[in-house]
Amino acid sequence: MNGDRQSDSLTESRAQLWQALDECDEIRAIAVVRRALGVAELKQPHDMDISAAEEVRAAGERVLLELIAPAQERVGSAWAANEITVAQEHAATAISERCVAAVADATAPALFGPFTGRVLVSCVDGEWHALPALLLSAVLRLRGWRVDYLGAQVPTEYLVAHAQRTRAQAVLLSSSIPTLLPGAHNAIASCQSVGVPVLAGGAAFGPEGRYARSMRAEWAKDARGAATLLDMSLPQPGEHAARLPDLDLPHLGDQEYTMIRRSKKQLVKQTLADVEEGFPEMRGYSEYQMERTVEDIDFIVGYLATAVYVDDEGLFTRFITWTADILAARGVPPLCLLPALDSLLVQLKDFPRAVGILHAARALLTPPPPA
To answer: Each residue of 155-170: pLDDT tens digit?
Structure first.
């Protein structure tokens, strides 16, 4: 019965928190979180026995993962559906971060006693979505770990240096942007080269963490999964941890990724010209619209290059499907992506893996012939 009451209470709290985030009301959002946590009932360390401390830790983890995290996922879905603006999404995310801090402050009295160990939590260089890493850090602290949370966009050399200086038992890397996978691969190999095991998480690493595993990192689906893996002790890197990317991904030996990456600027420029010719409406675009179009083409080339890097057409087709849905939600016909794909097919005709990926994406956008 107690579980049912908790479930009902969380359901009500989720609705209240979403309303506060939707209205960018930080004070109300934090109040919802504190009520869900039962912060008024928390005691000071000297008044708290082990069982009371465990109850507080469990309540904190539940609020983090079953209240704040789902509310933030809804924020992302609302932006994708064009129900909220970019500014609202940024404001809501900042409020979610404050909610995590509120949980950390309220549960601090329960975090006494020796640490389980010390780990480092960081976003991949270039990754600005830091909330998942922040949530993970908060959960691990509740589980008894000392956590060095480095935040967003951490250059690999500083990540490795900090891991060495603090003698971290593991590095936990977070990324939601697939185009950062080559950099993530470098970070994984660099950490392992100094003897620090790596646990990766986030949407960037693909379904069931397939890209993390191909890069010889451990993978966790969520914060609880990461905590479980840490408790089991991550395998230590081998003697030959320092390695070139094509040792993990032999297909890189064909140089397709390297050549696409080096010619990216020219590919974007030529694709823009071809799209303008195939989509005459562009000639009436404002300066802002043109800038966004260039940005979109840059993303298309970047995702294509990354799909070639990991040798998985699914990475690119998922991006194209997502982009088509975003465009449709904003009243832009998804078929406008076809001229860009056709231009890249011509420009990259001598790159068989890239061509196969582009054909797979094009097939998703092409309407079936009439019956």
So the answer is: 999 999 999 999 999 9
Of 204, 53, 181, 183, the residue nearest 125 (C-alpha): 183
Cα dist from 277 to 85, 143, 274, 295, whole Å:
31, 58, 5, 18
Q: Is the pLDDT of residue 3 over 60?
A: no
Name the maximum alpha-carbon separation found in the chain.
Answer: 75
Amino acid identity at 277: E
Residue 139: which of 224, 17, 207 has the closest Cα? 224
As a whole number, the mean pLDDT across the chain is: 91
Q: Which two tokens stand for residue 130?
A: 């830091």
- Encoded tokens for 56: 């507080």
Q: Are 83 and 111 in contact (CB under 8 A)?
A: no
- Half-sphere exposure (CA, 13 Å, Cβ side) for 7? 4
Alpha-carbon dihedral sign for residues 118, 212, 221, 77: positive
Output the 3-class SS for the chain.
CHHHHHHHHHHHHHHHHHHHHHCCCHHHHHHHHHHHHCHHHCCCHHHCCHHHHHHHHHHHHHHHHHHHHHHHHHHHHHHHCCCCCHHHHHHHHHHHHHHHHHHHHHHHHHCCCCCCCEEEEEECCCCCCCHHHHHHHHHHHHCCCEEEEEECCCCHHHHHHHHHHHCCCCEEEECCCHHHHHHHHHHHHHHHHCCCCEEEECHHHCHHHHHHHHCCCEECCCHHHHHHHHHHCCCCCCCCCCCCHHHHCHHHHHCHHHHHHHCHHHHHHHHHHHHHHHCHHHHHCCHHHHHHHHHHHHHHHHHHHHHHHHCCHHHHHHHHHHHHHHHHHCCCCHHHHHHHHHHHHHHCCCCHHHHHHHHHHHHHHCCCCCC
pTM above threshold 0.85 = yes
The more confidently predicted of residues 276 and 202 is 202
